[in-house]
Amino acid sequence: MHTAGGAPAVEAVGLVKRYGRTTALNGLDLTVGQGTVTAVLGPNGAGKTTAVESCEGYRVPDAGRLRVLGLDPVADAAALRPRIGVMLQDDGVYPGVRAVEMLRHMARLHAHPLDVDDLVERLGLGACGRTPYRRLSGGQRRRLALALAVVGRPELVFLDEPTAGLDPQARHATWDLIRELRGDGVTVVLTTHHMEEAEELSDDVAIVDAGRVIAAGSPAELCRGGNADVLRFTGRPGLDLVSLRQALPAGSEAGEPSPGSYRITGDVDPRLLATVTAWCAQHGVLADRITTQRHTLEDVFLELTGKELRS
After folding, report:
1. With 60 as the cut, is the pLDDT of residue 6 above it?
2. Residues whose CB falls within 8 Å of the CB of residue 105, separated by 6 or more in sequence, listed in order
C-alpha cells in the first residue's frame, strides 16, 4: 500500500463481525496510507460495507484491532468525528431541509470549512439550492451528500458510491474534487461499482470477498499480478512460432489457438508491437487485424471473485 508518510490513516487487523449465523467480516486486514485514495471493491454481500461502517464507528467488530487516524472509532468517537467526513449510501439528510441550507449549516459546524458557494457551483447544486431534500433527484442527492462529507475539510473522508446516478459531467466534476482532496493531503476511502473509477482515481485497491481482503495493491500491481496482456493478429496458417518466440521480449509467449489466428501474451507495450510487426516483415507475413487487449482491474476482480461487481 502507498503512504504519504507517518502512521496509516486506517489500520484494521483481523476484524470479525457476525450477524447471527452470518459472518460479515472474517479476519479482515486493511491498511490505508495517509494522503492516498483507496478503493474498496467487492461483490454484494462480500463485507465491504460492514468494513467501511466499522471504520466510521457505525459498527462494532466482534474481534480484531481497528484504528482510524490512530483512534478507536467507537471509544474515541467524540475526538474522531470532527476529523472525518462520511458520505452515506442513504445520504442521512432530513427530508424537509433545503439543499444549500443544510450545506451552510454543516459548514458552520467546522472551524475552517470549504467555500460553500464554490462547492455548490462545482457540484452543480445551484439550481436545486432551495429545493427540499425529499424533492431532489437521485443524482442531486448524491452530489449534496458528497458536499456534506467534504465541506468541513476532513483529514479522512469515506465516500460510498460517490458517482452513483450521476451524468458524465457530474461524474468528472466529482473525480476532479477527489483528486484535489488528495492533493491537499486528505485521505479518501471510496467504495464504487465503477471499475473505471477505481482505476482512474485510486492509489490503492482492496478487493473484499467472503469477509476478507483477498487482494490489495495499486491498480497497476494488481493487473500485473493477473493474466498477461494479449496481442492478437491473423496471418497465413503455420507460421514459424519457434522463430517468433525467439524474437519476442523475455516473458512473452506466442501461440496459434486456431489456424491463422495468433495470440501473444506478455507485457503489451510499443516495444512488443514493434517486435511483432518487424518479425512479420522479415518473414514476408502480411499481418492482419492486429489488436491489443490490456488486462484490466475488472479482469482481476472477476478472476479473484468469480462474480460480477453488480451481482
Report:
1. yes
2. none
Hey, is 30 helix, strand or coil? strand
Mean pLDDT of the chain: 91
Query: For 106, phi and psi rounded to 5 degrees?
Result: -65, -40
Residue 203 is given by DSSP the state S
Q: Among 181, 201, 224, where does a domain finish?
A: 224
Cα-Cα-Cα-Cα dihedral of 132, 135, 137, 139, to 10°? Answer: 20
The DSSP element (H or E) to which 8 belongs, if any, is none
Instruction: Answer yes or no: is pLDDT of 172 > 70.
Output: yes
Cβ neighbours of 273 (radius 10 Å): 15
Residues 228-256 as b or e (16 or more Cβ within 10 Å = b): bbebebbbeeebeeeebeeebeeebebee
The reply to whether 134 and 282 lie within a common domain is no
- pLDDT above 60: residue 3: no
The whole-angstrom separation of Cα 234 and Cα 256 is 9
Contact between 278 and 224 under an 8 Å Cβ cutoff? The reply is: no
Q: Are residues 171 and 30 in the same domain?
A: yes
C-alpha cell at 121: 457551483
Q: Tell me the pTM.
A: 0.80
Residue type, 27: G
Measured between its terminal Cα atoms, the distance across the chain in Å is 27
Residue appearing with cell numbers 473505471: 196
Domain span at 238: 228-294
In the numeric block, which cell numbers belong to residue 151?
465541506
Looking at 178-182, 208-212, 296-300, which range is the least confident one?
296-300
| Of 5, 48, 24, nearest in space to 206 by CA | 48
Q: Quick check: 30 and 51 in contact, CB under 8 A?
A: yes
